[in-house]
Amino acid sequence: MPTLPVWFEVGSFVVLGIILAFDLLLVLRRPHEPSMKEAGLWVGFYVALALVFAGAMFFFAGHEYGGQFLAGWVTEYSLSIDNLFVFIIIMARFSVPRKYQQEVLMVGIIIALILRGIFILLGAIVIEQFSWVFYIFGAFLLWTAWKQAQDDGEDEEDTENPLIARLRKVIPMSEKFDGGKLRSVVDGKKVFTPMLIVFVTIGMTDLLFAVDSIPAIFGLTQSAFIVFTANIFALMGLRQLYFLLGGLMNRLVYLKHALSVILAFIGVKLVLHAMHVNELPFINGGNHIEWAPEIPTYVSLAVIVGTIVVAVIASLMSSGAAKSKLDARLEEDARKSLSDAD
Question: What is the mean pLDDT of residues 118-124?
Answer without folding.
Answer: 84
